[in-house]
Amino acid sequence: MSNNDAKCTTPAIYIQQDIKFENVVTNNVCKIGPLKALLSQFRLRTPIFYLNTCVRSCQIGMRWERGPIARFRIICELEDNIEPVFQKIVIKINSFVISDTFTLKTERPEYFEWATCSLPTDIKDSDNFEIHFTIEHNIPIIKRNTMNSSIKIAPRKFELYERLKTMYYDKPCTDVKINVGDKEFLAHKSILSRSPVFAAMFSYEMLENRRNIVEIKEVNPNVFEILLKFLYLGEIDEIKITESMNDLLIELMKVADIYQMEDLKTKLADIAMTTINISNVVNYLILADQYNILDLKKSSMLFIRKNHAKIKDTKSFENVIQKYPALKAEMFCYLLKE
After folding, report:
1. Where is the BTB domain (predicted)?
2. Using one digit for the tens of pLDDT, what is the confidence trace for 19-49?
3. How far apart are the first and last CA of the chain?
4. Of 101, 188, 191, 290, which has the fewest CB atoms closer than 10 Å, so is most exposed?
């Protein structure tokens, strides 16, 4: 199917391995907006960032309270319980440092204790915040001598992840072509079969399975490309989605439901819960109700209850009242709770 069959080479034979560790420092900056918006968030996390081959991904979780007080912790996916050495955070307002460097301490491998930082009492709701965080960590590296050469790779899960990246980006040995609108994608049936819809398609003598060509209509090619990447790598571009005025997230949720990808729906719901605001909360509530996403529905209801005075006169709120009577009744019952 693919023109890259020459890339399907025999894997190297591993005959020896030695493990060593290398220390590195990761610096990141995250602009998180004005205090007023932060105080209204039910749950807030930075976009995902990556440390090394064993700490697969990290986020900074935040809670902002009147006082003013900010609480932080790191949430990360680890390989084999290998922990970062230490983590420190500096908070800035309008590019000026307002806090001393403080450290986040380990509680358990994937979560860290909440660290509390008292902020100056004269900060304003309109002040914009930046979080500067520095993480020193170890990178475990496996040196493997093959029959041909000595190479460096990361252990276990990340090694598999790197191979999946090669399959997604380089497309060796593809066995199916997918036509979405005016765009063509080469893929592997084994990876597409993570979706129950594709799995059923390739399990029977359907036309798509015999021809190795799938025609998809009424799906935006850019949306399908994000779905395809998620099938291979379990990743989506959170920044791109959150900056698209939420239309992309809603369209992705629809396509994820069509292809019965519950893990993608869960990921999208998590992104939605971290980006709820006055302008999108009603759309998220409708989305959660439509696709039965209970956590997002609860978060949306809670946000509406806390900000009802600002939301009740919006067009989207009136839309719920007019077009979704069952949801309207459920929402009003929730609003009446203490």
Report:
1. 174-240
2. 445 566 667 777 777 888 777 776 677 777 6
3. 61
4. 101
Beta-carbon contacts of residue 138 (< 8 Å; ≥ 6 apart): 21, 22, 23, 52, 82, 84, 85
259-276 tens-digit pLDDT: 999 999 998 998 888 888
Counting residues of the chain whose pLDDT is more than 70, the rounded percentage is 67
- What's the per-residue H, E or C state across the chain? CCCCHHHCCCCCCEEEEEEEEEEEEEEEEEEEEEHHHHHCCCCEECCCECCCCCEEEEEEEEEEECCCEEEEEEEEEECCCCCCCEEEEEEEECCEECCCCEEECEEECCEECCEEEECCCCCCCCCEEEEEEEEEEEEEEEEEEECCCEEEECCHHHHHHHHHHHHHHHCCCCCEEEEECCEEEEECHHHHCCCHHHHHHHHCCCHHHHHCEEEECCCCHHHHHHHHHHHHHCCCCHHHHHCCCCHHHHHHHHHHHHCCCHHHHHHHHHHHHHCCCCCCHHHHHHHHHHCCCHHHHHHHHHHHHHCHHHHCCCHHHHHHHHHCHHHHHHHHHHHCCC
Q: Judging by beta carbons within 10 Å of its beta carbon (0-12, 13-18, 19+), is residue 314 exposed, middle or buried?
A: middle
Does the pLDDT at position 304 exceed 80?
yes
Q: What is the CA radius of gyration of the chain?
A: 23
- The residue with tokens 């105080």 is 39
User: 29: exposed, middle or buried (C-beta count within 10 Å: 0-12, 13-18, 19+)?
Assistant: exposed
CA distance 282 to 43: 17
pLDDT at 180: 96
User: Which amino acid is present at 62?
Assistant: M
